[in-house]
Amino acid sequence: MFKILSFLFLGFVLVFGADVVDVNATLQKQIEKQKELNQRRLKIYLEELNKIENEIAKSGVWTKSYESYLTSLEVRKNLKEIKERIKYLKKEAKTLAQKDELSSLISKENILTAQMEELKGKGNAPFSELLTPPEVGDVPTIKNPFDIFTGLSLIKKLDKDLQEYLYKKKKLKELVSLLRQEIIIYKSLVSIDKKYEKEYLKKNKQLEMFETAYETMDIASGVYQKRVEVVESAINRDIKEQTYGAIKISIVIIVIFIFFFLMKLVVKRYITDNERFYMANKIITFTNFTFIILILFFNYIENVSYIITILGFASAGIAIAMKDWFMSILGWLVIVFGGSIHVGDRIRVDMDGMKYVGDVLDISLLRITILEDITLTSIMQNRRAGRIIFVPNNYIFTRMIANYTHSSLKTVWDGINISITFESNHKKALHIVKEITKKYSKGYTDITRKQLNKLRHQYSLKNTNVEPRIYSFIAPHGINIEAWYLTNAYGTLTLRSSISAEIIDAFKEADDIVIAYPTQNINLQTKKLDMLEHNGEVV
To answer: What pTM was estimated for this model as a whole?
Structure first.
């Protein structure tokens, strides 16, 4: 019986033992298969994780800011530990090794403190600089057309800053999306291998910080964008107002230009005298620009009385520093409104010992411009002519300025001096000179008579004799005959030359008239010299 039972048990073991072996083998195969599957999945996850890490690395400022934050925390933690250890060693250091350690820790403390200065603010709040939008500032006031360019430039800058801020927000959003994908992969990695759990927690904390930063930036960007829109709207409104104002002022200025242009045409048509036309044209131009300056002044200066007060206080210093300019402007007013000198007049100016005679080309606010002509002064003194002479207007108060053609007068007195011998018929000579000067100056004499009659209404004229004047004087070498006559102020030399030649020819034809000039008589007498011979020598 026992044998039978033994055989039955042995058979049972053999049958069911074979089945157990088959099950274990199957399980082992499944485990191996699962491991192989996990390895493949792990490889795939790590490849995807590597791609995401590369994308995250491209985020630039955000990842660098976070790394700086982590570095700051690490440095702060190490610095705290080192300070505690230094504090302990300062109290308990007894051995040489402890003293060496204290010295080494103090050096490390200095290095870490320097690093903390460089990373200042990084450990308090990550991304603080990146999350803070640029300063918008107060809305500038556009007060004149020139400020329009400033306003447009500010709008351009605000738009650029806003776009840069929104771009940073966009990059942060992309970074948060990548971090979320990374967290999902890390969850899968943790399910495969628990060694990734620590990194998963670290990344999860990082994601929380970036999500918080994005939420903050999303709110800040909305507020910042609204602020920019308000500022730009205010600037655009001011620009629009200034543009309309500038257009209105431009229209007014154009109307003024047209009005004064028409005035110039009227003046040109009805004033035939060149000098009067020139002066009227100058006055119209000056009035035109004065009106324009006043319009601009009262439109773009907010507190005119305040500026006038400042100019009043500053005028004394300005007058001292620029007295020549002010005197020239005052001289210009005297010349223009006094009528002492006009454009086209022939004047003589004494400047620094020199005399210049020429015609006035222009009378500007600061100076008189004259063209030097060939005159007796040029011949006898300067030996130069044709120069442009600039005379400051203030010279009218301090220098001698003679006007040869003042008011309606266009003639001046000129004279010729000629000498005859004592033996000549001086009465005949005087008659010849008088007739010749009358002949050549008759036209100018008649013109001057009419001009002087007109001047009687303006000046008190005592002597109005315009006929040629002939004088004779006794001189050491003969009789001087002075002939004075009226001639054109612009052509004195021409008439002088003609009259001189005519007088010389007339005197040469007369037998009893001899032109005198300095002479010397030398009497030569022959003297006999006695030649005395003494000891064979001539004395």
So the answer is: 0.49
